[in-house]
Specification:
By secondary structure, this protein is mainly α. It has helices at about 1-40, 50-65, 75-85. The protein has one domain. Helix 1 packs across helix 3 and helix 2 (about 50-65) packs across helix 3 (about 75-85).
Length: about 90
């Protein structure tokens, strides 16, 4: 009986760890894709500096209203920079 409990406990702990890793990977890929979409959208806009600031501010407000924390202007800027840094890899 102890062997069965130990085996099941190990299975549950392994599954939980796999879920955490999968969620982390999905979050990284999502942030990369958000950054990509921001860059693609910006490349169609004029006066990039001012337009980019306004875009991130508005995007932040909309996403925060709908999804809560994690979409501040600075976080969106990090996502954008993340994409620009790793786009060719």
């Amino acid at each position: 009986m102890k062997d069965l409990i130990h085996d099941i406990r190990d299975l549950i702990l392994s599954a939980r760890q796999a879920v955490v890793q999968a969620v982390d990977l999905i979050q990284v890929l999502t942030n990369f894709e958000i950054g990509r979409r921001i860059v693609v959208h910006e490349q169609q806009g004029a006066e990039r500096a001012e337009y980019g600031k306004a875009l991130l501010k508005e995007l932040s407000a909309e996403l925060t209203d709908e999804f809560g924390r994690g979409f501040s202007r600075s976080n969106l800027e990090y996502m954008r920079k993340f994409y620009l840094t790793y786009q060719d890899r």
